[in-house]
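From the pipeline queue, job 12 of 40. The input is one protein chain; the requested action is below.

Action: predict structure.
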Amino acid sequence: MPGTDERELELKYRLRIKRIEMFGAVLNSVAKWGALLGCVYFASDTLKGIVGTTTYADVGIRFLGSLRISQSIGIAITSFSIFVALRERKLRHDKTEYLQGRIKKLEEVLDMNRSSSRITPRGTTRPEDQ
């Protein structure tokens, strides 16, 4: 029966593909955890070299330790606000870039003779105009 041979061949190749997929998954995990282990190894080696010396981190901790609670809260709120503002700006530019093609097509449908403002796709001013 030719159908039986074809079925066995199909099962054989499915098994081979499954083995390759499993090997790939194992290799992926080994690469991830190996990279993490390498980072930990090199970080620990670096920390061994700076033990007992004064570092920027030590100076920063002493500076932060001398601040009052109200100053610390003010610095934290300001830092968080700057982070949120920069993140929102990036998201806004990303969304403008995402929508700009659709908007340009719709504007051309309304008026074929429409001239471009020549701003960048992200909605920022061209570098030569600054």
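Job complete. DSSP finds three helices and no strands in the chain.
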